[in-house]
Amino acid sequence: MRIALHTAVALATAIALMFLVLPVAALFLRVSPGVLVDQLGASAFRDALVVSLKTSLIAHVLVIGVGTPAAYALARRRFSGRGLVLTLVELPLVLPPAVAGVALLATFGRYQLLGGTLRALGVTIGFTQAAVVLAVAFVESPFYLRGAIAAFEGLEGGLLDAARTLGAGPGRVFFRVALPLAAGALGAASALALARGLGEFGATIIFAGSLQGVTQTLPLAIYAQFEQSFDVALAIGALFVLVGLAILLALKLVPRGSRAWGSFGGAVGAPARPDA
Amino acid sequence: MGSLRLDLTVPTRAFDVELALEVGPETVALVGPSGAGKTTVLRAVAGLTRPSRGTIECGGETWFDAGARADKRPEQRSVGFVFQEYALFPHLSVERNVAFGGRRDGLLEQLRIDQLAKVRPGELSGGERQRVALARALAREPKVLLLDEPMAALDPHTRTAVRAELHDLLRELRLPTLVVTHDFEDAAALANRVGVLVEGKLRQLGTPAELLAAPADPFVAGFAGANLLQGDALVGRDGLTEVRLAGGGTVFSTDEARGTTTAIVYPWDVALARESADDSALNHLRGEIVSLVPLGNRVRVRLPQLVAEVTAASAARLRLEPGDAVVASFKATATRLVSRAG
Predict the structure, then answer these.
(1) Nearest to A180 among B85, B91, B127 (CB)
(2) What's the distance, Cα to Cα, between the start and end of chain A in Å?
(3) Which of B81, B100, B127 lies nearest to residue A275, judging by beta carbons?
(4) How would DSSP label each residue in A112-177?
(5) What is the ipTM of this complex?
(6) Distance (Å, whole) CA A39 – CA A51
(7) Number of inter-chain CB pairs under 8 A, A vs B
(8) Residues of A in contact with B91 (CB under 8 A)
(9) What is the per-residue pLDDT across A155-185, written as a single tens digit (0 to 9) for each?
(10) Model-level pTM greater than 0.90?
(11) Which residues, at least 6 apart from B320, have a Cβ–Cβ distance to it below 8 Å?
């Protein structure tokens, strides 16, 4: 009976691992590394790489720049309706990206909610790189906000109070105490959000389209290429695997580095060692 | 040197903390059970909690005045706050923790932490952390010092030594100091005056000696470490008050009381013997020893009715063991009667 149970568990684990690892391995096994590297020179790939890097970077800077102070305020302030606001922040997490794309179109599209106002200002967003940035920011920001709010909520309130009694105004408390102490967790949230943003497909293709060199990001390039040149699609896929691995590794390393001074409460609440 | 004047009401979840107090260049300890509102008082003085009523003044400067809608922000009040568990910044070295508050020469040397300047708080012992927290609080040259349970994070071995050091430092500084503690011994060792705070109200304020000699109510007496014996008081012989104890037995006191009362006797006023001695002490209670706890050169001996403290030498000479029948004796003049309900 016990042996049967052990065998079943081992089998389930093996199936799960195979199922997850085999497709990733296939990306690299299907084409030789030499061919993969060659395909990285294709113009479709290079254009998509530039579009992806540019839009992801701009979106990410916007998300962090706006999201960090917003998360700090949401984490530290108590106000009525806070629960509702926190739920709304997380809503895009459970929306299918295609819904996000339609929703963005309905907001910023030429004849839609804000379209008229934007047109009066001479701004067109739909099917431009700005649309890619908005789509990426929209889908990745809940990932960052959630992590950042948790990071700031996890700070020991006494440390922020201590900073105030030492003469620090709200700005100095934020930059000198809250931000450095939350840095590890903020970095982790930022990496997750970046990965989500880089992989964004549905919202982008609906709201920004897939125009090579303008709005065609790497995930859109895979979709566009896989009928014409499956090798290019595979090469882009392989590149994503490498980027993903790098982000995962960074995630595992960052918290360890910051735990050295106890940003996760380790050293703060720990009992003092007895005097020698 | 300015003094700290407060007269305030701070609402908390369970009750209102109400306190009027003037602290000169001295140390005042607020003692009381946990949840009595002691920390709330410190937070109100520092500006971290807003009172609903009253005023806070320091050295002639108004920090808070509910009537005049004046409320200085924490960073604008000149306080040195030593938090419970010290709240040192874990990402900054000792040196930079202290410099966060301001720069003051010789502070690290004065608190003997100069050799720890580059060390992070996580690597410090409890006593060292306390000194760093004090240095950081003093770096701002505050007009008021607020200490929240400064001894709570220390292990028993270092406690006595650290307490003596802190006592000397506070005497040297001569700043208006409010220290919060749940331990009467700490309060008595550190403070010139002690206030007993229970459910947000000040039960009694006086020197440690005054609180021991004339506790306002049984709670204050119990907090100061006294034995509390409930009973009924009636007129006794020789002009004394006789108290029939609820737990059995009778004691006499030179204090006057009638009806339900509490007889108070301190453990160090209780002598132990194997047999009732024909001595001048009027009060003799017989009981079996429940436990013996050595405290350095003293031993706390618990009987069913009360606790006695005798020297370790006496305990050894009498060969006291748990379960032994002994007689506890104390004088009628050492027996206080307090009738206010606690």
Answers:
(1) B91
(2) 55
(3) B127
(4) STTHHHHHHTT---TTSHHHHHHHHHHHHHHHHHHHHHHHHHTS-HHHHHHHHHTT--HHHIIIII
(5) 0.80
(6) 18
(7) 100
(8) 180-181, 261, 263
(9) 988 999 999 999 999 999 999 999 999 998 9
(10) no
(11) B272, B289, B292, B299, B301, B326
